[in-house]
Amino acid sequence: PAALSARLVHESSLKPVRVILISDRYLNQQKGLPRGYLSALEPIIEEDEWKRAKQLVEAFMKRGGVGEELQRSLERKACNTDNWVSLWGKLEYFGNRSPVVINANVPIACPRLDFRDKQGQIRCAAKLIVALLEFKTTIENETLPAENLGGKPLCMEQYSQLLSTCRIPGLERDSVVFHAKIGNPPKHITVVYNSQFFVVEVYHNDGTPLTVDQLCVQMESICTSTSETTTEPVGILTTLDRDSWSKAYLSMKDQTNKESLSAIERSIFTLCLDRAIPRESDKYGTCDFHLITHGGGSQWNSANRWFDKSLQIIVAEDGSWGLNLIHIVADGTVSMALTDYLVASMKKPEMRQASILPLLMPQKLHFHVTPDIKEIIEQAKRSMDRNIQNFDLSVMVFDHFGKNYLKAHNMSPDAFIQMAIQLAYYRMNKQVCASYEAVSQRMFRRGRVSLLLSTTSVSAAFVKAFDDPQKQNTEKIDLLEKAIKTHKENIKAVIGGHDIVAHIIALRLQAVENKLPMPDIFRDISYKKILNYQFVTSNTGSVGVHQVDENSGYSLCYSVHNSHFIIEMATSNTHKRLNTRHLIQNMKDALLDMRALLEQAPRAT
C-alpha cells in the first residue's frame, strides 16, 4: 500500500502472483499517509476534531519519532511476509469471538430452481456435487482460466482454499486447516439431513467421480434412513459464540466424537438437504436469504449445518439453494466465480451416464453427547433463535432503471449507487455517514479484500447540497460528477495497493506487537470514528452476499443489472436506531431523485 511499492509478475494460470517489494527511501513513500489520512477524516469528524487530528498526525510523522519507528517495523514485516495486509486481516478474523453465523460467514442465495419435491431436491443436489467436483479438478490441474483486471493478473490462491478446509475453534483464537494440502487428500463429502451427518464417498477406487444417478442413489439412501429423531443436533453447536463453542469442542474428546469431527472437518465440502421454510409474501422473497444465512432457526434448518466448513451447499425441497462460506478462505470475487460456475452448470442439459461400478453406501456419523454437551446444545438453540430475531433483513428489486441508463449518462453504476446510499442516510439522520466499500486486492500475492472509505469531502458536499433549495441543479450535477470521479479514482488506488486505512491500522498493530506505548494518534476520537462505520457495502455481481457485524451499522450488498438493481440490506436489531425497511425505502427515493436530477439538468454531450 501507500508506503510500500509493489511490482506484479504473473507466473501461471493458478500459481499466485509474485510481489516484489521496493522499500528504498521509505520516508518519501510515506509522505502520502498524513495527507490521505487527514483527507479521509475530514468529512466524518467535526472541525475541532480534525484540527486536533492534524496536530497528532504531524507529531506522529516527526523525523526520528514513533511513526518512523513503526514504519520501519512494518517494512521489516513486509520483507518477511507475502502480504502484510492479509496477515493482520487474519489476526482480526480469528480473534473475533462472535458467532460466525450472520456475523462472519458469507451466504450466497442463488436463483430458485424449478422443483418442489424430494426427488427434485435430490437430483439438484447430485448435479451440484458433480459440478463442484468438476470445478475441483480444474483447480487441482491448474486449468482454471487465469483471471485478470485491466490486463493485470490476479492471485488465484484462494481457489485452492475453497475445498477440504475447516475452521477449528480455539479457546483464545481459532485456526483453519487446509486438508487438501495434507497427504492423502479427502475423497468424501459430508451430507446433512434431518440434523444428522453422513459421509459419502464421491470417487470410485479408480479415481473417477460418481455420476449424478449414482449420487441420487446415495442421497435417497440417506433420506430414507433418517426417520430417527432422537439424535442430538450437534450441528447447532457451530452457531455459538466462539468461546462457548471452543469449550464444548474441546470437551468432545472420546474416540467416537473425534472420528466424527475429523470426518466432517476433512470432507471436501458439506451438502445440506433442507426442509422448506415458510415463504414470506414480499416481492423478492427474503426467505431464501434467511435460509442460506442461518437456516431459519432451531426448529427448521439451523442445526442442519456445520458453519465452520469452508463451503456448505444448501438445497431445500422448494427449489431454494445457495452457498454458505467461511470468509477466511475466499473473498467475494472468488466466491462469486464459483457460484456463477454452479449456476451455469445447473442450466446445462443433463447427460445420463451408466455405471456398473459398486457403490460404498453412506456412513452415518455418531456422536457421544454427554449431559453437559446436551445442555450446551439447548443453549445454542436459544442463542441462535435470539440472534435470528435480532437479524433485520430487507431486499428490494429496484426496477426503474439499471446499468444501461447510467452508462448512457456516462455515470459509473457502482459510484452512482454509493452516492445514493450516502444521500439516503443523510436525509434520515442529517449527518454524513462513514461508508466503506469492499475492494479486492487480488493483484497482489495473497491479496484479499480491503475497505475503501467511500465517504469523501466531495460526496459529503453532494449529499448536503442535494435538497438545498438555494443550490442550482447545474451545481448539484457538478458535485455529483466530482463525487463519482473521486470514487472511481479512489477505487483504482485501493485496487493498486494505495490503502490508507489498512496502512494506518497496520501501524497501530505494530505498536501492539512491539509492546510500545500506544501513540496518541490511535487513542484519539478521530481514529475511532474512521473505524466506526455506518455502512459496509459491496457490489456483489449477480446474487446477494452479506455479513452483519453486531457491533457496527448496516451491511448493504447490491447487484447491478442492465435494467434493474437488487439491493440487500441487513443489520442487527440490537441497534434500535437502525431499520432496514425505512432505509431501503429512502434509498429507492434517493435513486429516483438522482435520476430526476439527471433528466432536469441534462449533461452536455
Question: Which helices and strands, and how do they pair?
Answer:
Layout: E1 5-9, E2 18-22, H1 26-29, H2 32-41, H3 47-60, H4 66-80, H5 84-95, E3 106-110, H6 118-140, E4 148-149, E5 152-153, E6 165-168, E7 175-178, E8 188-193, E9 196-201, H7 212-224, H8 242-251, H9 255-266, E10 270-274, H10 287-294, E11 311-316, E12 321-325, H11 332-347, E13 363-364, H12 371-389, E14 391-398, H13 403-408, H14 413-429, E15 435-440, E16 449-453, H15 457-466, H16 473-495, H17 500-513, H18 520-523, H19 525-531, E17 535-539, E18 554-560, E19 565-572, H20 580-600
Parallel strand pairs: 8-10, 10-11, 15-17, 17-18
Antiparallel strand pairs: 1-2, 3-12, 4-5, 6-7, 8-9, 9-13, 11-12, 14-19, 15-16, 18-19
Brief characterization of the structure:
The protein has 605 residues and is α+β, with helices and mostly antiparallel strands. It contains 20 helices and 19 strands.
Folded structure, characterized:
The protein has 605 residues and is an alpha+beta fold. The protein has two domains: 99-391, Choline/Carnitine o-acyltransferase, domain 2 (Chloramphenicol Acetyltransferase, 2-Layer Sandwich); 399-497 and 532-600, Chloramphenicol Acetyltransferase, CATH 3.30.559. Helix content is 43%, strand content 16%. The protein contains 20 helices and 19 strands. The protein has helices at 26-29, 32-41, 47-60, 66-80, 84-95, 118-140, 212-224, 242-251, 255-266, 287-294, 332-347, 371-389, 403-408, 413-429, 457-466, 473-495, 500-513, 520-523, 525-531, 580-600, and strands at 5-9, 18-22, 106-110, 148-149, 152-153, 165-168, 175-178, 188-193, 196-201, 270-274, 311-316, 321-325, 363-364, 391-398, 435-440, 449-453, 535-539, 554-560, 565-572. The strands form five sheets. A seven-stranded mixed beta sheet has the order 3-12-11-10-8-9-13, sandwiched between helices. It has a six-stranded mixed beta sheet with strand order 14-19-18-17-15-16. Strand 15 (435-440) and strand 16 (449-453) form a beta hairpin. The protein is globular, with a radius of gyration of 25 Å. It starts with a strand and ends in a 5-residue tail after the last helix.
